[in-house]
Design a protein that fits this description.
Layout (H helix, E strand, L loop, with lengths): L4 E3 L4 H9 L5 E2 L6 H10 L4 H18 L5 E11 L2 E3 L5 H11 L3 E12 L2 E14 L4 H11 L20 E5 L2 H5 L3 H11 L6
Helix pairs in contact: 2-3, 4-5
Length: 200
């Protein structure tokens, strides 16, 4: 009997990455208190990496509990600017303010991915990428926001490296899939090891 593979996310980007890799999977949103879990992790002395890993694990666990026997992929991404964590902007004005906050600085994207079956954490991984924005002008920022439209509201950074937002960057160091929010190569390696039937 084939193993059911579920992505505990509604992220279009993550879905597209798995589809492009040829995986047969379904999706199910995870209902968890992300901000509450984040606060608890930070209060306990955790950082952006800890938060991303915790959220990925909890998302996968929540969906696995409702889907016995399935292997569930949990994923999350956080953005750290020093000790500060940034979140998805609610609207264009917040996106503009966030981009201005990141302008001329280096920030880090932490992308975590986990595999859970029933109540067992099978595997987890976290990767970090480091990105530096240029000292762009307000006009450049507005041009990018015009071109991006509402797409940037789904991004933790208020930008899309795979879109016109790339114009705002000076350097990028790290795995491309990590930047998109899913460390794909480690995930595929884990599936080959733990559930090779999911890759056929």
């Amino acid at each position: 009997m084939a193993t059911m593979l579920i992505l505990a996310s509604q992220s279009d980007t993550r879905k597209a990455l798995l589809q492009q890799a040829g995986l047969d999977f379904s999706t199910a949103p995870a209902r968890i208190d992300e901000r509450g879990l984040e606060r608890a992790a930070l209060d306990a002395g955790g950082d952006g990496r800890d938060v991303a890993l915790l959220l990925a694990e909890r998302k996968a666990a929540a969906v696995a509990a409702a889907n016995p026997g399935a292997i569930v992929i949990g994923a999350d991404q956080t953005l750290s600017l020093g000790a500060e964590l940034l979140h998805k902007p609610a609207d264009r004005s917040e996106a503009a303010a966030q981009l201005d906050h990141l302008r001329g600085k280096t920030h880090r994207l932490h992308a975590a991915v986990t595999l859970v079956r029933d109540d067992l954490l099978l595997w987890s991984d976290i990767q970090t990428a480091e990105l530096t924005m240029r000292d762009f002008s307000p006009a450049e920022r507005e041009e990018v926001l015009d071109r991006e439209g509402d797409a940037i509201l789904a991004s933790v950074g208020g930008y899309r490296l795979e879109g016109p937002s790339i114009r705002l960057f000076e350097t990028v160091a790290g795995d491309y899939f990590t930047i998109l929010g899913l460390p794909l190569l480690p995930l595929l390696a884990a599936l080959r090891n733990l559930a090779p039937e999911t890759l056929t």
